[in-house]
Description:
Layout (H helix, E strand, L loop, with lengths): L1 H25 L15 H12 L7 H13 L6 H10 L22 H8 L32
Amino acid sequence: MASSSSSNLLAAAVLLSVLAAAGASAGTTCVPGWGIPHNPLPSCRWYVASRTCGIGPLLPLPELRRRCCRELADIAAYCRCTALSILIDGVIPPGPDAQLEGRLEDLPGCPRAVQRRFAATLITEAECNLPTITGVAECPWILGGETMPSK
């Protein structure tokens, strides 16, 4: 009987630790240095520039895409859209010495609007096939469809 009681107690402890970890991660703020790395998605920046402007490092597009998708996959699903928004529009994270991070630049013959349209597709099935917090590859506010939710 003691064995059954110990097993139930152990199962309850494991369940509580799983729930605590899930609750802690759900409260993480998606800002550079917390839920997102500082200056996130550098490979995606090159991939977007290469695909939309024909400029960038001398790497094959499939390799650039693989690197970009790996960077996006390393970011929690609930922060992916925010990371893409930072890549596209930039952000000034909290802090006394904070500077603008991210933000695609207008390139000669390749305006940000063109890059924005492509960058917004990076999580779709055709590119990286990554879900977001909603469970689908979709970030409607990136293209100006909605306001980015605060998280």
